[in-house]
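Need tokens for this chain, all 85 residues.
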Amino acid sequence: MILKKIWRYTCNNFGERQADIYTNALGQAIEELSENPGIGSDIELIRKGYRLYHFKHHFVIYHPSSKVIDIVRVLGENMEIKRHL
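Here are the structure tokens for all 85 residues:
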């Protein structure tokens, strides 16, 4: 899963403790998205029905449906969103 990759990168660059803190917070942010899918920004001009949530150094791109959200991508904030969708 993407959180493992983010954890590994953060651990290699900032240490295990920071990796745990950051990925736990990102996981909580994704949980919050599932409970409140409207808090992200509409990116309809890029991809119909998709939304974007900026969390610290990442963009969470997701597609809300009636019961769940589908996490489409988690991108570093320096990555071009349109290119990776």
